[in-house]
Amino acid sequence: MHDAGIRQWQICPLGPTGYGDSPYQCFSAFAGNPYLVDLYPLVQCGLLTDADMDDVRQLPRDHVDYGWLYVTKFPLLFKAFSAFVSQGRKAALPYGDFEAFKHTHRSWLEPYALFLGLKDHFEGAAWWEWPAEVRFFSKAKKSALAKTVAARAEAHAFFQFLFFGQWSRVRDHAKSLGIEIIGDAPIFVARDSADVWAAPQLFNVDSKTGVPLAVAGVPPDYFSADGQLWGNPLYDWSAHAAEGFAWWISRLKANFALCDIVRIDHFRAFDTYWSIPATAKTAKTGEWKQGPGLKFFAAVHASLPEARMIAEDLGDLFQSVRDLRAATGLPGMTILQFAFGGDAKNCYLPHNLTANSVVYPGTHDNNTTLGWYRTASEKERDHVRRYLHVTGTEIGWDFIRTSYASVSNMAIIPLQDLFSLGAEGRLNTPGEAAGNWQWRYPESQLRALHFDGGAAYLRDLGVLYDRV
Fold this sequence. Notes:
globular, 4-stranded parallel sheet, 10% strand, 4-stranded antiparallel sheet
């Protein structure tokens, strides 16, 4: 990235994934994903042996197998923790002091660790299926079961210590090269999360059972006759407002501890959100409700005046959503794959873009540009070729060059497009429950891009369009 003149690296959320493997459905809005912890430093400091790594070396390199990862990596993490304890917690880990880490992050780490300790105890069952004595954190922390699972909970806290310690080294290295990291804050949290379990009063759930009274999604549109039923519990915005949006501000502070810029997912829900009855089978039977609006962003700005954010404002929007984004001053997103096949007024066409925006060929929810072009209508392909004055034989790089040349203050290019991958490189297909989030690249692919002219060409584009 440094050699290519790239100054920002955008990532998906780093939270601990659960069923479905989506980084947008995590066990915590604050914690990191133990799957990302590098085990080799644990070998170097004596918490694991080289022989322990034999199974890890057998993990597939062409995709992520989450099931295999779960049964292979977690036992090694627990083994490392046991060794850490047996060594008097004095292993030569370069991540600081574990006790100090727990104290610094105790507001979210204590409920999160106990949550996962209990989840392990109940063999993965969702928290609303647990006995009444541990149904919510306020009760669970005083229960006898809290002592029963204390060692397991401590292990999960240790995994967070490893994650944050290692990520801080990644971030420091990026900073030394002049590269900023753009993180991602999903608008909603998962129902089966430590967030809802620890603070049910902040969500639209039954105070005794935890059952959602209404859930999130989006209404029917051109792409889906039934809409999308996400199932996430909705926020009780009046409760958040009453405490000055303290939970959200804490969450954003946690995000900014991991990255330099934060993309706010599903920005439109801060203006109006689709509320679906919890018993509904589809997203058809919902209604628009008012979000917290500008008061939320005023509170965030008062607490985090230097915060830099990007608003994910894609989709069919009310004018009030556009007005809210304009009032916040946040840059919005624009997607080139959405630009073609219509008329000259399409807001995603390069000549209609504004400087206060971030342009993407596509996002993690889109096909790769090459995959999109191969399945697009002839009307769309013809429009692309005429608009960009290209043949379409190198459409991925055509979109990269167009992104660089646009007036948008920032251009983000998916790695799959830099690799000229087709649909086999797609990361996520919205609405499909399985098979997502599994794409990965081999080191050889990155090296080829770096040393076979890709980095030099990107730097040339950056110089040409004043992005270096």
